[in-house]
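cron nightly-structures :: item 1 of 1
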Amino acid sequence: MRVTDSQPPYAVIRRLLKGDPNHAEEWFRVVTWAQRSEERELIGYVRTLNEAAVLGWDYKCAYESWRHHLAASRTDADVMARDQPPAEAMVRFFRQTRTRSA
């Protein structure tokens, strides 16, 4: 997923079929984007493509919000990289704060 062609991707969605091939369950796996697959981090599993797109977008928003918050306090980039929370936790916190303010 990416906002525009000129911006880097922020998430990857993969469609998975599980169970009986004749009646397979469809799932979507959402991970952070990285050039190398082993550097990607799980964001979560969902049942629909729409939920996957929303999860990827929420990760982007959560990451940008977290990054801007730390940058505002002039946190060093190395410290930010070291202390970055897991993607799944970042999205969960972002969604909790969004529902509290609504």
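cron nightly-structures :: done
The mean pLDDT is 91.
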